[in-house]
Amino acid sequence: MEDIKSSILKGKKGLIVGIANERSLAWGIAKSVFQHGGELALTYQNAALKKRLVPLAEKINSKHIYEFDIQNYKKIPDFFKNVSQDFGNLDFIVHAVAFSDKEELKGGYVDTTKNNFLNTMEISCYSFTALIKESLPFMNQNANFLTLSYYGAEKVIPHYNVMGVAKSALETSVKYLAADLGKKGYRVNAISAGPVRTLAASGISDFRYILKWNEYNAPLERNITLEDVGGASVYLLSDLSSGTTGEILHVDAGYNVVGMKNVNAPDISKV
Questions:
Q1: Which of 150, 151, 186, 255 is catalytic?
Q2: Would the pTM of this model clear 0.85, i.e. be above it?
Q3: Is 160 a catalytic residue?
Q4: pLDDT over 90 at 255, yes or no
Q5: What pLDDT is stored for residue 202 in this prediction?
Q6: Of 29, 104, 110, 134, which has the maximum CB count within 10 A?
Q7: Which of 193, 155, 190 is nearest to 176 (CA)?
């Protein structure tokens, strides 16, 4: 079981949707939430993912795991009703869901098919809005919502293609949702994480090159860790960020502020 570090999130209950394995950003968030006193419910999409999730749930003392298909919109209200009855109403939800056909991430964005465009946008962007809409009757006062993005939403990243368009739409959704829900005291934010070796990243061609480029050119001269993302999530999910909403928080070792190659970085083609 993970060690407890503080009680910042003590008494807070949350749901994390999208833990794929122990290398996923969502798992980094789950660990940090638990280490700072939060209680978690988790979801899985199918039997194969459940096998990966159960031992992870044990590490954070979570006894509440649910099968959940985020694209089955008609069943989302019943899902939240079940979670509320079994686990209680929620203080926060973490949305860590994204998908695109990796074959269409290899070429150019111009070659994106209509079907993959719509599917990518639905799963990676619209699902966050749908999740929030149906969860509202089951959220506690001053609840908040968090999703995950990437710098490819702002600038062109090789082989990110339609996923960049979807993440851009997701970040804009965060702002509109924050405006919609602020009057109710709810907050909506996103973390724009730097590249990390995750299952999702394996679908991006030349990902090793992207990792090395970020390491050489980010102001901190390193790549980020799951713990970096987890720490930022504790801030956004806790009362420490009570005045923060509609924010896209970059956790990327500062890479987003850089305008050109680090003059001291080696020639990456020789590394």
A1: 150
A2: yes
A3: yes
A4: yes
A5: 58
A6: 29
A7: 190
Distance (Å, whole) CA 51 – CA 36: 26
**Tokens matching residue 25:** 């950003």
**In contact, 13 and 88? CB cutoff 8 Å:** yes
Tokens 């939430």 — which residue? Answer: 33
User: CA torsion angle for 237, 165, 121, 84 (degrees, to 10)?
Assistant: 0
Domains of the chain as residue ranges with CATH: 13-253 (3.40.50.720)
pLDDT digits (tens, 9 = 90+) for 5-29: 899 999 999 999 999 999 999 999 9
* Residue 98 tokens, joined: 């994204």
The answer to whether residue 126 is catalytic is: no
Structure tokens at 58: 């044990």
pLDDT in tens, 154-199: 999 988 999 999 999 999 999 999 999 999 999 999 999 999 876 5
Catalytic residue among 44, 151, 160, 186: 160
Round to whole Å and give the CA distance between 78 and 113: 33
The vertex-122 CA angle with 116 and 127, nearest 5°, equals 150
Q: What's the chain look like in SS3?
A: CCCCCCCCCCCCEEEEECCCCCCCHHHHHHHHHHHCCCEEEEEECCHHHHHHHHHHHHHCCCCCEEECCCCCHHHHHHHHHHHHHHCCCEEEEEECCCCCCHHHHCCCHHHCCHHHHHHHHHHHHHHHHHHHHHHHHHEEEEEEEEEEECHHHCCCCCCCHHHHHHHHHHHHHHHHHHHHHHHHCCEEEEEEECCCCCCHHHHCCCHHHHHHHHHHHCCCCCCCCHHHHHHHHHHHHCHHHCCCCCCEEEECCCHHHCCCCCCCCCCHHHC
